Amino acid sequence: MNPIDDLQLAYALAVTICLGIAAVRDLTERRIPNAVPAALLILYPGVFALGLGASPWWGGLAVGSAVFAVAAALFAGNILGGGDAKLLGVVALWAGPAWALEALLVTGLLGGVAAMARLLRPLLLTPVLGPQPGARETSLPYGVAIAGGGLWVAGRMAGL
Hints:
It contains 6 helices and no strands. The chain is mainly alpha-helical and 160 residues long.
């Protein structure tokens, strides 16, 4: 195997682990550690060192900044969590202009599936388990959907 292929595989694994940590922590704790978007930000230059990017670095910076600005406004309006805003911004950075719309579309679709599951959960479980006191959750772990969009971008970079 070519050493560059080994580096690309290790790189893809590191990105996948970061996104997996974000998804699991958001799902279980409703919190995405700051270290996850920071690690993805630190790993970003490797995209170009390994020849994986489809856009110039400044294109990713422009798209990532724009998406982060919108996500920060949603956070200020208490619509999106802070960790979600940071993760969404860094996923858009990675996607760049070439794949940003795809990443946002995948994120939105996965978020819609999660929202539908949240709405249908009481309808499906109440007949089986009966009413669950205090079972009403008000937040949706959107980091899972954002991580899915990030994995989509990683797949595109890998040529999948």
